[in-house]
């Protein structure tokens, strides 16, 4: 059952508020609107990119009916603290997992091996939090610097060296015209400005991984904004 179905079956509807993350695509917020409820954006944990339990608790009102906790990039344990909060506060917690077409055990194991290699060798970027159960659906690093131009310049430079990479979340949902809200989400904003997804899955060879490491480490992770 999808997010809309789970919200409907729980009786969530008009007049209710549902707490959701803004870091990601608009799918979850749109699901909340589809049942007639109002999405309320809460900040994320900067390490797991999942909703931060303290931020969720701060956003709870008398109209809060549910929380949609999304596991990002393969951090399957990232929703645990929100689930515990829901149990304590008597809130429905709907767990939404991003689509992953590669759930084969051998593929997951390969991604984890590749991620471990990158974690050990990358120095020009901040590597992902290495936690138990992380499936590395995406291998997302942080490019340190002074904001979006640094990350984008880094991405362009890495691509010129033959490494495929992508910005996982270009615009947080609370900045989209349909959902624009005056809300303070510092970790969400920082993640949107700094994150970059590097290749980690099949069919990468050891030479491909070495190319990723060489390209990122040569740049040092700090590029001045291009004017």
From TrEMBL:
Q: Which UniProt keywords apply?
A: Aminotransferase, Pyridoxal phosphate, Transferase
Q: Which domain of life is it from?
A: Bacteria
- Record-linked InterPro entries: DegT/StrS_aminotransferase, PyrdxlP-dep_Trfase, PyrdxlP-dep_Trfase_major, PyrdxlP-dep_Trfase_small
Q: Which organism is it from?
A: Streptomyces chryseus
The record's annotation in Gene3D superfamilies points to: Aspartate Aminotransferase, domain 1, Type I PLP-dependent aspartate aminotransferase-like (Major domain)
| Protein name per UniProt | DegT/DnrJ/EryC1/StrS aminotransferase
Q: Does the keyword Metal-binding apply?
A: no
- Membership in a protein family: Belongs to the DegT/DnrJ/EryC1 family. L-glutamine:2-deoxy-scyllo-inosose/scyllo-inosose aminotransferase subfamily.
Keyword flag Lyase: no
Q: Which cofactors is this protein said to need?
A: pyridoxal 5'-phosphate
Q: Which parts pass through the membrane?
A: none
């Amino acid at each position: 059952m999808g997010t809309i179905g789970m919200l409907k079956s729980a009786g969530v509807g008009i007049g209710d508020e549902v707490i959701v993350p803004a870091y990601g695509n608009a799918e979850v917020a749109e699901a909340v609107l589809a049942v007639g409820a109002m999405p309320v954006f809460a900040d994320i944990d900067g390490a797991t990119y999942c909703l931060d339990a303290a931020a969720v608790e701060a956003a709870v009102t008398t109209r809060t009916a549910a929380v949609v906790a999304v596991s990002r990039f393969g951090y399957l344990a990232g929703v645990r603290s929100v689930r515990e909060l829901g149990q304590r506060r008597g809130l429905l917690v709907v767990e939404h997992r991003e689509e992953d077409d590669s759930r084969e055990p051998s593929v997951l194991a390969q991604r984890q091996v590749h991620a471990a290699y990158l974690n050990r060798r990358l120095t020009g970027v901040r590597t992902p939090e290495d936690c138990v159960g992380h499936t590395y659906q995406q291998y997302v690093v942080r490019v340190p610097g002074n904001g979006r131009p640094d990350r984008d310049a880094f991405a362009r430079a890495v691509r010129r060296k033959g490494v495929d990479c992508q910005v996982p979340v270009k615009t947080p949902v609370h900045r989209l015209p349909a959902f624009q809200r005056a809300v303070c989400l510092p970790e969400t904003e920082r993640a949107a400005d700094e994150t970059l997804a590097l290749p980690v899955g099949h069919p990468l060879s050891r030479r491909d991984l070495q190319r990723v490491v060489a390209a990122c480490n040569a740049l040092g992770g700090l590029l001045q904004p291009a004017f």
